[in-house]
Amino acid sequence: MRELTKQIASEIERVFSGAGISCVCCGAELYSDAYLCVDCQNNLPFNVGEVCEKCGRAQAERYPVCLECKAHMPAFHAARSAFRYEGEIVRLIKKFKTGGKWLGAFFSAQLLPLLLSEFSDADFLTCVPMTEQAYKKRGYNQSLVLARELAERSGFRLEPSVLVKTRETAAQKYLSAKERAKNLTGCFRVHERTVCKGKKIVLVDDVMTTGATGSVLAQLLLGAGAERVDLLTVAGVRAPQSVR
Fold first, then answer.
1. Would you say 179 and 26 are in contact if contact means Cβ atoms under 8 Å apart?
2. pLDDT value at position 119?
3. Which of 32, 53, 105, 160 is deepest in the core (most CB within 10 A)?
4. Residues 79, 223, 193, 130, CA torsion sign
5. Domain 45-236 maps to which CATH number in 3.40.50, 3.30.70, 3.30.960, 2.60.40?
6. How do residues 100-132 score in pLDDT, each as one tens digit?
7. 164-216: per-residue pLDDT in tens?
8. Which of the two residues, 28 and 114, has the higher pLDDT score?
9. According to the 3-state scheme, what is the secondary structure of the chain?
10. pLDDT of amino acid 60
């Protein structure tokens, strides 16, 4: 009974914290605990259709892997994203990173079906870490917010301290593959190696751009004895033109 009461109180708090009162996109008043009005639900760029089997990014045609994955195969087993990183989702993720912490509830609700359908045999969830300096500046780690919400919804175990980021890095988006590798060298480490041994791990993050960060972290976790590492993100940029 105590657990049920806590669950009800938590749901009431979620509804009155900003999500569920108005549409997270357009602000239209809602008369349920839904996150979106019908129009916005129909217009958001959900990542459906053809995707790269490896990085999960949208493709124009059906090919096993995208051009980028073929040239630089990521270390993670597979990655999936709920949305394409375009349109309204770009604005919402930016808002999520700049004070809109409550959007974590909305995003995690979109990630839940992917987690349960694609990575249902995972042993635990973890997240992409931030440096202590970056955490203090923002006040929270958006990837941890997502992972925590997702763990609560799914019942999966959360291991938030498995990975540590030791220094700041430049944005990966505009770097070449060689520059990305150099940029990420030595900036992460596994803090809890024994937790990883023989485990299937799902790494949670907000955006998949090149997949380089997820690949580096997967490599570290596999090196610590993980059996498999998958990546789950809110949104992914479109894959470059693919080849057979």
1. no
2. 98
3. 105
4. negative
5. 3.40.50
6. 999 999 999 999 999 999 999 999 999 999 999
7. 999 887 666 666 666 776 778 789 999 999 999 999 999 999 999 888 899 99
8. 114
9. CHHHHHHHHHHHHHHCCCECCECCCCCCECCCCCCCCHHHHHHCCECCCCECCCCCCECCCCCCCCHHHHHCCCCCCEEEEEEECCCHHHHHHHHHHCCCCCHHHHHHHHHHHHHHHHCCCCCEEEECCCCHHHHHHHCCCHHHHHHHHHHHHHCCEECCCCEEECCCCCCCCCCCHHHHHHHHCCCEEECCHHHHCCCEEEEEEEEECCCHHHHHHHHHHHHCCCCEEEEEEEEECCCCCCCC
10. 87
Domain residue ranges in the chain: 1-43, 45-236
Residue identified by tokens 């505009």 is: 174
**How confident is the model at residue 244, as a pLDDT?**
43
